[in-house]
Amino acid sequence: MTVKEYLSQALYLDKRLRTKEKQLDWLKDHSVYVSSELSDMPKSSRAHRSALEEAVVKIVDLETEIAIGIAELMQLQSSIAQVIRSTNNMECETILEMRYLTFMSWEDITVQLGYSQSYIYHLHRRALSLVRVPAA
Fold first, then answer.
1. How many whole angstroms separate alpha carbon 6 and alpha carbon 13?
2. Is 132 left (phi over 0), alpha (psi -120 to 50) or beta?
3. What is the dihedral of CA 134, 4, 9, 80, to 10 degrees?
4. How far is CA 24 from CA 55, 57, 63, in A?
């Protein structure tokens, strides 16, 4: 795994979580249209769930997936932050944190730091050369 691939893991995990959150929002929005069947007859098995029960189960499962993913993301970001700090260069640490921990765009980093875009790219290359990816 390259340095860039290692550092980008958090970004892709964050994107995947945001996608799951959108799916969850969609499920919640549309579950109001699912009606339950009310009957005084006992259910024969759990294999025949109502549409409302199925919707609730999907929502709970997705919420659990998101919670697990958030915990993974927090752990990954902590590991990446530790690797970034090992560069022992404040300027390089700053640009790497902005890019790989807060997922800022190059334009935003340029504005925030007040450097030219070409200097930001130069600094990024230098920062990447200082990073040592931990062995898997």
1. 12
2. beta
3. 50
4. 11, 12, 7
Q: Using one digit for the tens of pLDDT, what is the confidence trace for 77-130?
A: 999 999 999 999 999 999 999 999 999 999 999 999 999 999 999 999 999 999
CA gap 43, 39 in Å, rounded: 9
Cβ neighbors of 6 (< 8 A, separation 6 or more) are: 80, 83, 131, 133
pTM value surpassing 0.85: no
Segment 4-41, tens digit of pLDDT: 999 999 999 999 999 999 999 998 887 776 655 555 55
The per-residue DSSP string of 40-99 comes to: SSPPS-TTS--HHHHHHHHHHHHHHHHHHHHHHHHHHHHHHHHHHHTT--HHHHHHHHHH
CB crowding 106-133: b at 16 or more within 10 Å, else e: eeebbeeeebeeeebeebbeebbeebee
Does the pLDDT of residue 48 top 80, yes or no?
no
At residue 54, the pLDDT reads 83
